[in-house]
Structure formats: C-alpha cells, structure tokens
Amino acid sequence: MNNDMLLNFFESNINHKKLRKSRLKRKLTIDKVSEMTGIPHTTLQRYETGRTKNVPREAVKKICKVYGTDYEAYYIWTEFALFKNLSGILTSLFFGTPIPIYVKPILGNIFEKLELEVVGKMKIFVVFSQKEDIKDVLYRSLTKEEQKEYQDFKIITTTFLKTNEILDDIEKEEAENLLFITFMLHKIRKENKEKIIDFEEAEILN
Length: 206
Hints:
5% strand; mainly alpha; single chain
C-alpha cells in the first residue's frame, strides 16, 4: 500500500467504537444527537456500528461540535498500534509510513533535521522527504560523542548476538535499523519526557 492509499484509508474511515463511546460518555441518546446535528437517527446508527465506513467529514464535524471534541480524533488511524508509543512512531518513520503531526513536539529535532511536507486536506499527517536516507540524516545530526556511543552499542549488541554469523545481509540491515531506532528512542526520552498522546482514547488532540 503506497502513501497515497494509506493516507486515503487513514482519513476516510471512522473509528466507530470511539464515536459511540463519546456519545455514551455524555449520556446523549442517538435521537438527541440526531436532533442537534440534523443527521438522521438511522444514519448515526450506521456510523456507530461501523456499517458506514466512509463517513462524510462534515458529518463528523457536526457530531464533534455537539461533543466538544476534535473531529480528527475519530478517524481510523487512531486505532493503529504503531501510533500508540514512541518506538512505534520511530518505526513508522523509518519505514516511510506517514505519521500524525500531533507527535511533532516530542520528536522535536527530528522534525527540524528532516525535510517534511504536510499531506492531505485534513493536515493531520506528515510525510518526510525521501531525498536522503532518514537514518543517514539522523545519524549526521548526532554529536561525535553520540555517534561513537551508537557505534559502541551496535558492536556490543551484534557481537553478543553473533549477528554476522546468524543473519543474512538483508536481515542484518533490518536489525541495524531496529538498533538505531532503539538508540534514538533512548536519546529522545533523555531530552523529552513528554508522553505520546493516547490517540485511541483522546477526544482532544491539541
């Protein structure tokens, strides 16, 4: 699935369980929400049960206005496990998956070091430029001391695991990417203790 298809999927399908949960949390009936939004009762039911996947954006906005929530918080991307923690976000970044713009504060210097563009009308995702290898860009952003720390970390880990004896060249490259993700995870956490938003639960994203 390419980025355009993935973005379309993320931004066109609703997290219907969360939509229903928000209504129940406010002790509102479907009839009351229908009255307040002008959306038919049966249509709202289809939204909440997932029978209608591609819910019009304007309909989501009307519902969220009643709930006092952000409409971006109800799209299907909020269910994805990769967006639940920093290691998942970094993994998505390395493998070219668009990531939610709401993680920008915690990624800090990564956003500064990598050229990026905001994609889609909803502007909830960022896609990093692939003009250069992301790992190379981030590695060059490390200080000389940090680069040495990473190289020592890689040597110790691959020696202990006997990586060169066990893995083929493709597997070694994948393993090294995971090692670098682990290194960057620790570096970012040292610099920024802010938690990633629990996208699956959050009703407000700002």
